[in-house]
Amino acid sequence: MSTPSPTNAGEAPWTVARILEWTTQHLKKSGCETPRLDAELLLAHARGCSRIQLYVQFQEVVSEAQRGVMRDLVKRRAGAEPVAYLIGHREFFSLDFEVTHDTLIPRPDTETLVLELVTGARRQSEPRILDLGTGSGCIAISAAVNVPHARVTAVDLSPATLEVARRNVRRHKVESRVELVSGDLFSPLSAAARFDWIASNPPYIPQAELANLSADVRLHEPTLALDGGPDGLAVIRRLVAEASGWMNPGGTLLVEFSPEQASALVALVEAAGGWQGVRVLKDLAGRARVLVASRES
Ligand SMILES: C[S@@+](CC[C@H](N)C(=O)[O-])C[C@H]1O[C@@H](n2cnc3c(N)ncnc32)[C@H](O)[C@@H]1O
């Protein structure tokens, strides 16, 4: 896109189709795994339209101003900055969430946990839900939107992250049923609080593996959202140790983890005692992903 302007005689104009093709090739050479999709998302953002709308605009010439925006976005994407941060939002559980560098980008893997939570909570009359490490608020807000009679408390250690979650709570109009609190795991909760569901996608990457993560994640996503201590289980261990004390009898614990941690996590919960029906759910790719355990009545 550093070629002359479309108005120059003899130059092919920079149409939507041509920019998509150029960007796809450029991102592919930069090692991007989904170059065409990323090109479409970035160009749609630069043009202020949806990705689908681009398909009826292929022959339209892109303005110099939009090309300027696109040049900057493509440069940053080629430097491994995730598309979600560049365009400022990400879809999760069919809802749109604002994301910034202060929040983890919601992953499809986490939809497995939310589906279990929403399916179960819908059967209850007034479920109380706790989301520990809420990030963008994607678990808490998806639950509140899909279970209209639920009340949700969402905790995060990072006040900056909670500001983004707060905007997402407003965006999805669930302010009256989602309470956001800042602090370490259960510490900011009032002593009398009890929940029917405790859900968490905690940081669970072992410290030694942080350096091996892809550049997108390693260079751009918050370390606080990823770093699970020496064996990846530092936060999970504290969470499991305390969870049963905050739960109503028969309540359910849902914890996301990395597939290779499955047996360690099941052992952890069984050793903690007071839990029954311990099982592991698989994500859409068939990998062990979510621990489910019910508090003994
Ligand atoms: C893996 S991210 C998950 C974010 C979001 N729930 C999601 O699924 O996309 C973990 C989150 O936990 C937060 N966190 C890390 N340690 C915490 C702690 N001790 N207490 C509360 N939140 C914590 C991080 O700030 C981060 O937002």
Features:
297 residues, alpha/beta, Rossmann fold, 2 domains, two-stranded antiparallel sheet, 38% helix, 19% strand, disordered N terminus, binds S-adenosylmethionine
Describe this structure in words.
This protein is α/β, with parallel strands linked by helices. It contains eleven helices and nine strands. The N terminus is likely disordered. The structure holds S-adenosylmethionine. S-adenosylmethionine binds next to helix 7 and strand 4.
Task: Calculate the mean pLDDT score and round it.
Answer: 95
Which sheet architecture does the biggest sheet show?
7 strands, mixed
> Please, how many helices?
11
The termini sit apart by 64 Å
| Residue share in β-strands | 15-25%
Overall tally of domains = 2
The secondary-structure class comes to alpha/beta
**Strand line-up of the largest beta sheet:** 5-4-3-6-7-9-8
Q: For this structure, what is the CATH class of the largest domain?
A: Alpha Beta
Shape: elongated
SSE order: HHHHHEEHEHEHEEHHEHEE
Helix residue percentage: 25-40%
CATH superfamily of the largest domain: Vaccinia Virus protein VP39
CATH fold-type name of the largest domain? Rossmann fold
Bound molecules: S-adenosylmethionine
Strand segment tally: 9
Using only C-alpha atoms, the radius of gyration works out to 22 Å
Report low-confidence residues grouped into runs of 5 or more: 3-7
CATH architecture of the largest domain: 3-Layer(aba) Sandwich
Summarize the entry for a quick read:
The protein has 297 residues and is α/β, with parallel strands linked by helices. 38% of the residues lie in helices and 19% in strands.
